[in-house]
Amino acid sequence: MNLFELIIRLKNLIAKDNEVANANNDENEFTVYAGNILKQRRIELGLTRNQLAVQTRITSPIIEAIENGWVEKLPEKAYLSTMLSHLENELRLESGSLKNAIKTKSKLPAKKSFNLDLELFNGWQGVIIYSLLILISILSINHHQRKLALSNNLTVNPIKIDSIDTEISAKGLLEFRTKVPSSIIIQDGKGNETYISNIKGRLELHLEPPLVIKIEPKPKSDSILRWRGKENLILNKQGSYVINN
After folding, report:
1. Pick the CATH number of 165-243 from 2.60.40, 2.60.120, 3.30.300, 1.10.10
2. How far is it, in rounded angstroms, from Cα 218 to Cα 71?
3. Contact indicator for 186, 151 with CB cutoff of 8 Å
4. Which of 35, 108, 110, 189 is the most exposed place for a label (fewest CB within 10 A)?
5. For position 120, what pLDDT does the model report?
6. In a 10 Å sphere around its CB, with 0-12 CB exposed, 13-18 middle and 19+ buried, how is residue 78 labelled?
7. 197 pLDDT band (50/70/90 cuts)?
8. Which comes out higher in pLDDT, residue 16 or 239?
9. Residue 213 has pLDDT above 60, yes or no
10. What does DSSP assign to residue 73?
């Protein structure tokens, strides 16, 4: 399918859409005509909509919708046909005067939305179009990135992650396991203290040395205290564990 055929197909779809719109306009004209017949006869007999609703058992909003040509508020064709027959009998109108003058929206083709024919993308033409779209997108993004780089709003150099790696490697894993409820006090190199109480089971913390750790009560032989996976921490005279690296 070439570009000319695609334009013709789009034109035909638009024409069909317009035909449906014109059909809807015709529907409104017929509905208004039937509504005028109903309203004029009701007024001649001196009836209000509510009085006519009681006599025919048709709700007042439905009668109002028929009189004003509000197609979107009308019921389905089967129900509407029965209602129109009741109205004709109650108002002593000629049989079929309302039913033949009104068109329901069920007689009209459903309004079609404007959709591009997807069959276009099933052949080799679709592959070419898809490839062109991808190429245009890449060129557009590339142009935008270069424009930002020239205006100093974007760097084209990769981000250095040395500082991130250094920060991650500086931290270590402190692991503490105990069967007895314990408390731990951790002091970092800046003098900040962290107090954690009622520890029972396993505790893991990622911390950055230097550290001073104090555990109460003193860990028993079945307790485990590891730093970076090793159990080589030494308890000093003050009852604390000092970690320098």
Report:
1. 2.60.40
2. 86
3. no
4. 110
5. 52
6. exposed
7. confident
8. 239
9. yes
10. G
